[in-house]
Amino acid sequence: AIGDKRGEAKSYNNIGDALCQQGRYGEATLNLEKAIVLFQEVNARQDLATVRLNLGHIAQSKGRYHQAIAAYRAALDTCRKTGDLRHQAAAFYDIGTAYQQQEYYDQALIHHQRAEVIAKDLGDLTMQAIVNLGMADALSGSGSHAEAIEHYRCCLELALQTEDLLQKAKALEGMAETRRRMRDFSNARILFRLRHARRPERVECFAEE
Fold first, then answer.
1. How far, CA to CA in Å, does 89 sit from each of 3, 22, 164, 197, 206?
2. For a Cys staple, 78 with which of 49, 67, 105, 176, CB 3.0–4.6 Å?
3. Which residues contact residue 51 at a Cβ distance below 8 angstroms, ignoring those fewer than 6 apart?
4. With the C-alpha atoms ordered 4, 7, 12, 15, is the resulting torsion angle positive or negative?
């Protein structure tokens, strides 16, 4: 039955995702490939996109960036056909991170910006925070420090709204490192302290030049 196959495929995908988180990429890939076969049999295109993103994450973790980007683009193509905007945003973001890790900052920024447009249309504050962090990292890596600070600040503000402690910590760390690169050591030290404080009472964004 279709329902049984889809349920089995989801199980393979979940197992693959869990194995990926543990760094057991070979086993993860085997389970994800089984999921793809079953999802294709029942024409579950939205689920196929999720699996392809997961396969992309594995390839990226292993430094196989061209393979990762191909998987992300395959997921993006599927999402466009199904109208799945949430996964489209994720695919654009993932493509951006793959370019960013290769230091292709212009391409990274282009894809992060596309993800941000969709995230804003969806009103997804969590995704907006993640994408702003990606844009900030790309800008900081390329030497556009003032612009990077602005996007770290956006990420921080969104993270505070959603109470996302992980993105809050990453935004503070990114701002601190960027301030250090700018040789603004005073603000860098303050930001690093805020990053590691258990419960900072106040967070300054230090966006001024």
1. 28, 25, 19, 32, 29
2. 49
3. 13, 16, 32, 35, 36, 39
4. negative
pLDDT value for 118: 98
Residue 22 CA to residue 62 CA, distance in Å, equals 13
Q: Judge whether 187 and 199 are in contact, CB under 8 Å.
A: no
pTM of the predicted model as reported, rounded to 2 decimal places:
0.88
pLDDT digit string, tens, across residues 16-59: 999 998 999 999 999 999 999 999 999 898 899 999 999 999 99
- The pLDDT, as a whole number, for residue 198 is 57
- In angstroms and rounded to an integer, the radius of gyration of the C-alpha atoms of the chain is 19
Distance between CA 4 and CA 164 in Å, rounded? 36
Q: Which amino acid is at 87?
A: H
Written as one string, the DSSP assignment of the chain is -HHHHHHHHHHHHHHHHHHHHTT-HHHHHHHHHHHHHHHHHTT-HHHHHHHHHHHHHHHHHTT-HHHHHHHHHHHHHHHHHHT-HHHHHHHHHHHHHHHHHTT-HHHHHHHHHHHHHHHHHHT-HHHHHHHHHHHHHHHHHHT-HHHHHHHHHHHHHHHHHHT-HHHHHHHHHHHHHHHHHTT-HHHHHHHHHHHH-SS-S--------
CA angle 175, 138, 111 (to 5 degrees): 135
Give me the pLDDT at residue 203, please.
Answer: 52
Q: The tokens of 62 are what? A: 């292993």
